[in-house]
Amino acid sequence: MLPTPFGEFHAHAFETSGGYVYIALIAGRVRDAERVLARVHSECLTGDAFGSLRCDCGIQLRTSLRRIAAEGRGVLVYATGHEGRGIGIVNKLKAYVEQDGGSDTVDANLHLGLPVDSRRYDDAAAVLKSLGVRSIRLITNNPSKVEALAEHGVDVAAVEPLPIASHTRNLTYLSTKRDRLGHANPLGGRLDEVPTVPADVSDLLGPMSPHAERPFVVVKYAQSLDGRIATATGDSKWISSEEERAVAHALRARCDAIMVGVGTVLADDPQLTVRMVAGASPIRVILDSTLRIPADAKVLNDDGATLVVTTERSSRDKRDLVESKGAGVRVATRCGDGVDLASALALLRDMGVNSVLVEGGAKVITSLLREGFVDRVVVSVAPKLLGSGTEGVGDLGTRSVAEGLVLTDRSVHVVGDDVLVAGTVGDTAGASDAGVEETAV
After folding, report:
1. Active-site residue among 104, 107, 117, 417?
2. What residues form DSSP beta bridges with 13?
3. CATH number listed for the domain at residues 2-82+119-179
4. C-alpha separations of 65 from 60, 238, 373 in Å
């Protein structure tokens, strides 16, 4: 027995004639069964074990196990020797170098004198036959895998696609699999569709290019028709519809990091993870100038990655406490009573963070807009009137309508009960200081 976070599986090992060992993870009874939910998963050390964002392999592995466990019957065959579509881990890393130079995943292999795809599925078919599976519903986006298994005697009764919420770092990879390798729907569905699959949020975000001194910054918030992100009592659950929240999670999955002020953590205790779609949860960044974050905050008590950006105003004891919870702590420049935003963003850029989704609170969002640090805004407007409450954006220092921010390259979509408006931000006027007050961070 192999207990996992997704459920309990029976693990079977099969040694192939080529010296590889395949692992089959089985839920329920599959011998002599028809239409068994199945996944033949090609080994991917970088994606499966290390969570690489260059591919979608690790997410597909975990999502397949979750689906099989939820159904109560199925099998996942883990095919070793398939690393890098059969070229091996060293050559795959060499192919990454080619991709960093501008090649896509197909041309990278060809430039190295390697086959585009040298995987064989005869051993995987033999495993399924040995388990006594009569026919399968295959979880895959790859038509070549379907054909190869059928050629080796596997009855593929149906194909169940496995789209994931894409990331900026694997968009080209997924597009190439679709356009050059014929994979089905790897980027997700339309924004206005019922979210049975992750939404493709490309239209909302546009091109996401980091700056030399800071990441690409996207501000996202949900508000009522009268511009409130919370009621007068601070309640904000839920202003938007479930369909809109699924799109919001797809936006999270697209970015390297998600950032909020400590005020949001104190008020809502959010998880800031990707839960409503199949995707990778971003690094959680908390702006907290004096480390007021509670030790029992959700962002400090799960297996996700959390970074708390503070200032020299925080004590060594508090930093040690946060670090003891497995979170990272970085000290940024102080600005007034808060964290200097330019310093915090530069710190993230130096760490390799290329894109940041900012979800709150209102003072963090306002300060970023006021200082011209926001590249893209995504606002969800719900058909509700709340009256008094917390406004989404505060004082930007504008004295006339003509001085207001104008969104260009706009995108408008109806999602569930809500209207999503996105646009690229122009320059702002009336800038003051580049910090956020202590009430926000």
Report:
1. 117
2. 23
3. 3.40.50.10990
4. 9, 30, 40
Q: What tokens appear for 284 in the block?
A: 């959680």
* Domain layout of the chain by residue ranges: 2-82+119-179, 202-425
Amino acid making up residue 390: T
Nearest to 344 by CA among 394, 307, 306: 307
Active-site residue, from 85, 119, 228, 252: 119
CATH topology of domain 202-425: Dihydrofolate Reductase, subunit A (3.40.430)
Q: Is 322 helix (H, G, I), strand (E, B) or coil?
A: helix
Q: Tell me: the pLDDT tens digits for 323-370? A: 999 999 999 999 988 999 999 999 999 999 999 999 988 889 999 999
pLDDT for residue 294: 95
Strands 407-415 and 156-160: unpaired
Give the closest residue to 137 by CA, choosing from 74, 192, 189: 74
Q: Is 395 a catalytic residue?
A: no
pTM: 0.86
Place of tokens 């029992």: 296
* Residue found by looking up tokens 């646009």 in the block: 423
Is 117 among the catalytic positions? yes
Q: What is the pLDDT of residues 190-213, one digit of tens each?
A: 777 766 678 889 999 999 999 999
pLDDT attached to residue 234: 78
Pairing verdict, β 389-391 and 228-231? antiparallel
Whether residue 30 has pLDDT greater than 90: yes
